[in-house]
Amino acid sequence: MTLFDDALLGARRADFPILNAGIExxxxxxxxxxxxxxxxxxxxxxxxxxxxxxHYRYHNANVARAMHTLGAQATxxxxxxxxxxxxxxxxxxxxxxxTKNASEALNLAAYTLSSRLSPGDEVVISVAEHHSNLVPWQxxxxxxxxxxxxxxxxxxxxxxxxxxxxxxxxxxxxxxxxITALSNVTGALTPIREIADWAxxxxxxxxxxxSQYVPHNPTSVADMGVDMLAFTxxxxxxxxxxGVLWGKYDLLDSLPPFLGGGEMIEVxxxxxxxxxRPPHRFEAGTPPIAQAVGLGxxxxxxxAVEERVPSRxxxxxxxxxxxxxxxxxxxxxxxxxxxxxxxxxxxLHLIGPKxxxxxxxxxxxxxxxxxxxxxxxxxxxxxIAVRGGHHCARPLHERFGxxxxxxxxxxxxxxxxxxxxxxxxxxxxxxxxxVAP
Length: 437
Hints:
Layout: H1 6-14, H2 17-21, E1 34-35, H3 46-58, H4 69-89, E2 96-99, H5 102-113, E3 122-126, H6 135-144, E4 147-151, H7 161-166, E5 174-180, H8 192-200, E6 205-209, H9 221-224, E7 228-232, E8 243-247, H10 249-254, E9 265-268, E10 273-275, H11 289-304, E11 306-309, E12 319-322, H12 324-342, E13 348-351, E14 362-367, H13 372-381, E15 384-385, E16 387-389, H14 394-399, E17 405-409, H15 416-432
Parallel strand pairs: 1-15, 3-4, 3-5, 5-6, 6-7
Antiparallel strand pairs: 2-8, 7-8, 9-10, 11-12, 13-14, 14-17, 16-17
Helix pairs in contact: 3-11, 4-11, 5-6, 12-15
């Protein structure tokens, strides 16, 4: 039984020019590219590249201010992208704020919600956060005198809810809970609805960092139960330079602006100004127009993805899935396969859950006494792209007693053959550094 429909996966991979162009490592000969760094940034399909190119070639103008035909076309494309993104996460357009990335979205949340913080208040995050969801809250607490507290993780890499409840981590002093929906290191899924319900009992605002979650899973902000959700375009097939903050409209409407300038105002006088309603209140100046158009095309592409899942029951036909359900199914199958293969490599220590349950397709690990950067360079010489370092999650690495790790991450274009190539590459790393006997 094959894991994937070869025709569907082959056609999907053909949509990504970079996957078919090969790569020429420094000092090496041209070879096939095995791209396993999608948690860092995803590759872009032809449809996204074409959408951005056509916008600049034929529709380029500023939005919401140019009254000519090109301005109307650009505005329609920009706001149309907002509509697509809103539907993608189960929100409405007025709740979608475009930013330049998820980091800016989380900074926007931290800065504006600082207006509600004062000494004695508490902000809760976790030790598993990306620096983008840690540093802004450190800064907010420094500005306001609030106290920063955090969830620990278990030795398996999952949030330690039992310890958090025993310590009354979320309580009457909690004003904000901001937490990753899926760790960019351990791959562990956060029980976000359970945490949101807990926090809401105390009236706290709940924010999810969906940077790793949204590109891989069907997303409904209502089902998640959060008040805000941040994510980024470049990890979900879209361009760089575009991020999203979804927020409940009434919450957004109660918050002050983040940046001042054009388009975020209602009336400007020398003595004072009044501000536009959300989302434009938070989009000062010329926004990322072409990037939003590209993100809209990425959403269209993701919604059209198909996966044919073989039945585990004898005699039953494969089931065809579409959209993010198909992406999630591909991820789930590949996660199970990758875990089995990686855990067969001698001297490999996986950071995070070792079972394919409530986890995503992100795998961070160490390999004997080989520094992750050295391993990464050897793999790169073989045309295999992975990431080495602390992945902007240094406190989590410290929690596990390691300085850095090798990280492998997959997406809807990844094949089992590429996982096999990775494992062969890791065995070569062991031979190169004489880890193998």
